[in-house]
User: Which sequence fits this backbone?
């Protein structure tokens, strides 16, 4: 029997006693599993995943490369060609069939390699973004990928954790779990470790936690009972259809374009074949086969079937580069959305600021204490500035009172505290919340405080949440035989809970005048950019001592205020400016005081001096319509709770914005889900936000978001480049063949040596060679092109605007037609008759045409790198492109000059001069585009002012 699977006689985990269960699961709850045992169980139960994917064997994946209607068509054509060859006596080798087969295989190998590359990148992303769980293994708390959880693991749960497997609680303290995904119940369920009896519905199994749910409050310890598909979530997953990922807008667009082109080109191919058959006449089976192959190849050539593969590779390479720079995207296609983000809603603390908190000033009833020193090193001096320091006799008394109050502030702030500051290799390192660490550091700068704290024994805690904006600890003082509640929190919020104020050794009731004074002090500190907290306390009641509930913060005595600095990140200011230049607005959303938010936002250039900040309470009063108006105007939101974030996202989206939004706490998850790009903090973020987001910020840094948008735009631009390149190249092939046949008479495309023979401007093998080999190499290189146009000088791309817009189509048609024209003219140039008189053989002329087309495409690759800039601009920045060009030229030299290739592609050698003529003709494509671009640039220069001026503050 497998461990953990209940037999008929054993009770289900929620009904079993905790001890019985851990025995059954063969685990010591104080130590957890040993790693060897865990490995063995993992092998037995398999990974803890819903619907683990079956690996597809290599041969299947290779075969899948041939599964394309156009390839089927080609295969049919090859079969027909071989049959004809057999019927005609099987003389020599069926060259066309062999060559086409070889090209198809080469194409499949290329596709296979590209697919593998993209898949590897996706797999790497999956590991980077995999959910993790805290467990006890070998007696130590260990963080491991949730996929490795096994029955018997001891889960350590805390706020913000995504529950990794189904587990029975052993201990639960204030544990609340959001189980909506499983039970549909929207409010969080209070959990406990108590035993249950009788039939209990899933939603009422309070002693269980389930995979796919989230811890919103408290802590707990649980033993894993089932994993993977055997969990409750697994049951649901088995019932539901596999939710395939939706194709991205770009994928949809490319599929649509491919379909339309496919239909169009099959039409053209039929016309071409009919024209050839009826106008020129096919005399032999071989000629019929040639016509068929040509028609099919043309259809294959014109449809950009290689695009989706190239698209995936380009996205994969781009996403990997982004991950290296701390912006980890969960899905390749989110890059598209990132490029069109028009607003970034960012938290303040840690994202725009450094989250390095230094407590600088303490304000109490008797005055102010200034502390020197930076960072977390406990070195610094305290300077007392008592109010009314008039040099009189009583100044010592003022100092004394001030010192008593200031110490109390730091004692309270250090007791209501969960952080630690330790020295590691000469560096002071913070574990826990930096705001709390600031109190500890300050305490060591103001003598006596650490010793006094030592007398207290911590008994219980009412934890901090972004909604409450404060936290309290109940601590017992043995000598005094009393318990006190110490609270610290947002000063303005805390003041509402205070009834008195500490004045030296006395407690003075707070009247309106005192309140007004304190509020003014809060405003002043905040306006200087300080993070302003208050510290208060009260003696706990008898009965309270055992378990303070969350409403302990009442009838408090205010000890004083503190001002903590958290300097803006140096790079954030430049990033805000870069975003603005790119038409992306930065919005700051913070739980902090409006005045602090305003100061920092002004320093960072998010608003101008005097710019407005809206407070959370203000949002409460507005309906959705009014909120849309507000978000248009206001870029700083302060004292907000997580549910306000959701409303801000909705309002921005209603106003047509594509919203990127950051978040870290568990309650941010809904806003992150609803944003177009939810961004979770990699360092401080909870598992739940990481699950809800599309991007994880490795360094929690705002500048990284802007850099990712920049990169996203470059990637998108590169997609545009190879689309422009491939589509115009394909069109060039179609134009060559179509007009080569239709205008054969005008252009003198005739084989004078065999006047009755069928005239095809390009052979099927040549078309396929161009399309499947020489086209795709530069296209791939273009996918990793560096920035050519200044992508951050443009407004964000509108997501509903097709990438293949009108100007793009116009350019494609222009270039493709030109490419076909120069190819045909080159042939005419070498052939007798037509527009230009020549004297070469038809095979030579066709070789020249074929070569011209290949060269024209290479030059078109250079030109396609920018719609507006000259091809010579940053011409040598992409070594891959030059390598691709070099490779294709080398291949063409082989095709033209190596005998076996000449046989395969029906080519003849060209002289040096003939090569130069081909190059000169091909270069017309480049020059013509240069002229068009120059005209456009001149025209644009006369147009409206550049973007920098257009997008204001
Ligand atoms: P952001 O939303 O940009 O991260 P924030 O850190 O100020 O900003 P919250 O964490 O929601 O947002 O904090 C809100 C307020 O609660 C803070 O301005 C501060 O006054 C207070 N506060 C923050 N941390 C603590 C803490 N550990 N204990 C008590 N009060 C705190």
Assistant:
């Amino acid at each position: 029997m497998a461990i953990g699977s209940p037999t008929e006689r054993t009770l289900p985990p929620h009904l079993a006693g905790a001890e019985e269960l851990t025995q059954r699961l063969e685990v010591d709850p104080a130590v957890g599993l040993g790693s060897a045992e865990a490995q063995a169980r993992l092998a037995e139960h398999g990974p803890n995943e819903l619907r683990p994917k079956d690996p597809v064997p290599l041969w299947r994946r290779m075969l899948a490369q041939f599964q394309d209607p156009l390839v089927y068509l080609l295969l049919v054509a090859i079969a027909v060609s071989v049959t004809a060859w057999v019927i005609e006596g099987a003389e020599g080798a069926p060259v066309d069939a062999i060559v086409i087969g070889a090209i198809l295989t080469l194409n499949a190998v290329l596709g296979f390699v590209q697919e593998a590359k993209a898949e590897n990148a996706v797999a790497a992303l999956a590991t980077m973004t995999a959910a993790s769980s805290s467990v006890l293994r070998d007696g130590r708390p260990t963080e491991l990928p949730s996929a490795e959880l096994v029955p018997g693991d001891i889960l350590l749960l805390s706020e913000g954790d995504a529950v990794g497997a189904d587990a029975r609680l052993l201990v639960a303290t204030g544990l609340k779990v959001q189980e909506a995904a499983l039970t549909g119940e929207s409010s969080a369920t209070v959990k406990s470790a108590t035993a249950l009896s009788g039939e209990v519905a899933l939603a009422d199994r309070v002693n269980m936690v389930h995979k796919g749910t989230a811890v919103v409050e408290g802590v707990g310890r649980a033993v894993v009972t089932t994993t993977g598909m055997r969990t409750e979530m697994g049951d649901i997953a088995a019932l539901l259809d596999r939710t395939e990922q939706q194709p991205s807008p770009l994928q949809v667009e490319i599929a649509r374009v491919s379909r339309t082109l496919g239909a169009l080109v099959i039409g053209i191919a039929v016309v071409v074949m009919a024209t050839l058959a009826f106008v020129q006449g096919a005399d032999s089976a071989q000629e019929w086969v040639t016509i068929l192959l040509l028609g099919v190849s043309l259809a294959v050539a014109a449809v950009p079937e290689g695009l989706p593969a190239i698209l995936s590779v380009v996205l994969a390479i781009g996403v990997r580069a982004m991950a290296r720079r701390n912006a980890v995207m969960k899905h390749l296609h989110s890059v598209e959305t990132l490029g069109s983000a028009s607003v970034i809603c960012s938290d303040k603390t840690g994202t725009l600021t450094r989250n390095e908190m230094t407590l600088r000033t303490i304000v109490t009833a008797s005055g102010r204490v200034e502390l020197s020193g930076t960072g977390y090193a406990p070195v610094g001096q305290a300077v007392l500035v008592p109010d009314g320091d008039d040099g009189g006799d009583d100044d010592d008394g003022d100092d004394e009172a001030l010192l008593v109050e200031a110490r109390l502030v730091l004692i309270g702030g250090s007791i209501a505290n969960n952080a630690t500051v330790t020295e590691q290799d000469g560096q002071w390192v913070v574990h826990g919340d930096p705001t709390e660490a600031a109190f500890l550091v300050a305490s060591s700068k103001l003598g006596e405080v650490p010793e006094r704290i030592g007398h207290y024994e911590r008994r219980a805690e009412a934890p901090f949440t972004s909604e409450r904006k404060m936290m309290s600890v109940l601590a017992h003082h043995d000598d005094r035989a009393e318990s006190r509640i110490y609270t610290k929190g947002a000063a303005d919020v805390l003041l509402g809970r205070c009834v008195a104020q500490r004045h030296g050794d006395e407690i003075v009731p707070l009247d309106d005048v005192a309140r007004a004074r304190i509020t003014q002090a809060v405003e002043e500190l905040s306006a200087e950019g300080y993070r302003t907290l208050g510290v208060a306390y009260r003696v706990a009641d008898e009965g309270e001592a055992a378990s303070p509930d969350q409403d302990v913060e009442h009838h408090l005595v205010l000890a004083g205020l503190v001002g903590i600095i958290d300097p803006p990140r140096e790079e954030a200011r430049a990033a805000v400016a870069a975003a603005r230049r790119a038409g992306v607005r930065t919005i700051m959303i913070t739980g902090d005081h409006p005045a602090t938010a305003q100061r920092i936002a002004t320093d960072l250039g998010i608003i101008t001096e005097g710019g407005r900040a809206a407070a959370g309470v203000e949002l409460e009063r507005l309906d959705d319509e009014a909120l849309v108006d507000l978000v248009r105007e206001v870029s700083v939101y302060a004292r907000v709770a997580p549910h306000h974030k959701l409303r801000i996202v909705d309002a921005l989206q209603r106003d047509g914005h594509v919203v990127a939004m950051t978040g870290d706490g568990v309650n941010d998850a809904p806003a992150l889900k609803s944003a177009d790009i939810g961004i979770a903090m990699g360092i401080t973020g909870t598992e739940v936000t990481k699950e809800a987001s599309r991007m994880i910020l490795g360094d929690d840094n705002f500048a990284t978001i802007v850099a990712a948008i920049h990169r996203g735009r470059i990637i998108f631009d590169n997609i545009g480049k190879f689309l422009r390149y491939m589509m115009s190249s394909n069109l060039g092939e179609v134009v060559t063949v179509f007009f080569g046949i239709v205008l054969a008479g005008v252009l003198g495309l005739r084989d004078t040596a065999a006047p009755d023979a069928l005239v095809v401007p390009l052979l099927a093998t040549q078309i396929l060679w161009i399309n499947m080999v020489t086209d795709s190499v530069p296209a791939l290189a273009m996918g990793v092109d560096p920035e050519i146009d200044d992508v951050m000088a443009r407004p964000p791309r509108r997501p509903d605007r097709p990438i293949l817009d009108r100007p793009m189509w116009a350019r494609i048609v222009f270039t493709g037609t030109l490419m076909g024209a120069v190819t045909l003219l080159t042939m005419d140039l070498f052939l007798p008759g037509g527009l230009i008189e020549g004297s070469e053989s038809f095979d030579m002329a066709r070789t020249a045409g074929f070569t011209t087309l290949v060269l024209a495409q290479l030059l078109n690759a250079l030109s396609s790198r920018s719609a507006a800039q000259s091809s010579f601009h940053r011409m040598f920045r992409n070594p891959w492109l030059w390598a691709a060009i070099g490779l294709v030229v080398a291949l063409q030299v082989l095709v033209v000059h190596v005998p076996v290739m000449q046989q395969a592609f029906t080519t003849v050698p060209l002289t040096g001069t003939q090569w130069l003529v081909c190059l000169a003709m091909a270069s017309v494509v480049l020059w013509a585009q240069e002229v068009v671009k120059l005209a456009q640039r001149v025209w644009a220069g006369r147009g409206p002012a550049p973007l920098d001026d257009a997008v204001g503050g």
Q: What stands out?
A: The domain at 327-352+569-700 is CATH 3.40.50.1000 (Rossmann fold). Residues 789 and 866 are 7 Å apart (CA to CA).
